[in-house]
Structure formats: C-alpha cells, structure tokens
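Here is one chain, start to finish.
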Amino acid sequence: MPEPRELIIIGSGPAGLTAAIYAARANLEPLVIEGLAAGGQLMLTTEVENFPGFPDGMMGPELMVRMREQAERFGAEFVTADVDRVDLGERPFGAWVGNTEHRGRSVIVSTGASARMLGIEGEYDLLGHGVSTCATCDGFFFREHEIAVVGGGDSAMEEAIFLTKFASKVTVIHRRHELRASKIMADRALAHPKIEFVWDSAVDEVLGDKKLEGARLRNLVTGEESVLPVTGLFVAIGHDPNTSLFKGQLELDANGYVVTEGASMRTSVDGVFACGDVQDHVFRQAITAAGTGCMAAIEAERWLQALEPIAAS
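Its structure:
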C-alpha cells in the first residue's frame, strides 16, 4: 500500500481548487485528482462578472487557471486524470487512477454536477455565445434581448422569471402542453406579461455561426417546423451530480447528490467531506462552491488534528 497522504481531493472547479488552497496553506500537502475535464463548468463559461474581486469580469477558464496556480504555489499536487474507483470503506481511503493507487487519511469530494443538454446540432459550439445553462450567471448579458428558456419544471420557471429582469421577452419552450412545475411557480410564469409559451415543441437546432441567432423548433404533435429568432437560449432541464463513483459508499439523496450534515460538509463516512455542486442542488454558483470548498478544507484539517492524539498513543 502506498504511503497515505493527509488529504486527497477528488475533482476540481471552484470548490475543489478552493479546498486545495486552504488545505495547502494548512500544510496538508493535498493531492488533487482534478479529472480530465479539470476546472468544472467554468471552463465552458466565456465571461464571469459576478465573482468578487474582478470588477471588469474574467474569462471562466482564466479564473480556474489562476485558482489552480494559487493552490500549486502553496504546495498542492495535481494529477490530471479521472478517478476510476474509490474505496471509502476502510482507512486510509483509496482512490485509483488506472492501475495507480492513491491513499489518503481524509478525502474531499468535489466532482461537481453536469447540466443536462439538449443533444442537438450546434449546442456546444454556441455554449457561452448565446446558449447558457445558468440564468443567474449570464442573464445580465441579455438586457433588452428576446431570449428563450427550454424546460417545464420549477427550475425553468425560476430562470424564466429571473430573466424577465433583463430581457424584453422570454419564450418558454416545453415538450408538453402543461408544465411540470409546482402550481405556484407555474401560475407566476403564466401570469407574467413578459413570458410567452410555445407548447408541445422541441428545439431541434440552434442557429448562428459565432453567436446565437435563433432556434429551430419542431411541434411534436403536428411535425411543423419554425424558427424562433432569439439571441439567448437557456437550457433548464436539470443537472446530474457526478456521483457514480460514490454509489453504495456515500449517502446520496433521491437525485444522486451527496448528503452532507446540516451546515457542515461532513458526509455519511467519517473523514470524507463534500463541497460544491456535487452536494449543492440549490445555488450552483462559483462563489458558493468556493465557500463550501473552504469549509470542507477547514473541517478536514480539524478532523485530522483530532486524530493525532489517537495516532500517537
């Protein structure tokens, strides 16, 4: 068995990198297995304007690079690969990258969540250039624009209502003829003067070269096609937490998110902590992810300190 590290952080993004900064400054020399898609969802974001300390905004990838460099400066070590399996049933905890085994006395899980996409032509090419999965992040850029929201649940209605603060018109596109959202959210959206609905329809294609110019819609009942001229398309059909590694090892909620204890980042396994979008299905912001990363690192440090007298006896 390899010599165990004090702390292994699985995943990166604002949560994992902030945890790495705090842990490294506490001389824990964390090993960060950051994943092949290192940096999380901000790597797909063109400009971040709501992260404190950057009044002129910053490109998402640049922010992640800076956070990573900061963690490295304090002594964090990085492995740019995906974890294939973990063993949280015995201590020290195990994480495998291919055939390479890593062991840690404590673990922080920061594998994030992935926004569900439509799976249509042009979608990823225009992500950050008119196509978005976060109204709170990007709504500001669409002042007086005509935009659309895809979805019919509470999240879609929340995003549509939020976007009316900026857009001149919001069109909600839904595959059915009635909303899946709760009655109170549905009633608010249906009554809003800036929100219109296109029912029984799917988006088949997003249009535009370097920026979004419209969406090609197909009526699922009649088969009729049409083009909706919008400059923003917000996909609000849910998120999937990246927790397949931890099924059967950590307590997950009904939607697959890691369950943490109250205001703590502790998980169901003593010595394992979770932070960021992998345990937060409410806010999903870079700044809140960073905050929970800080909390997880401090809790891990205190947990390790509490073990020292036992280890020395």
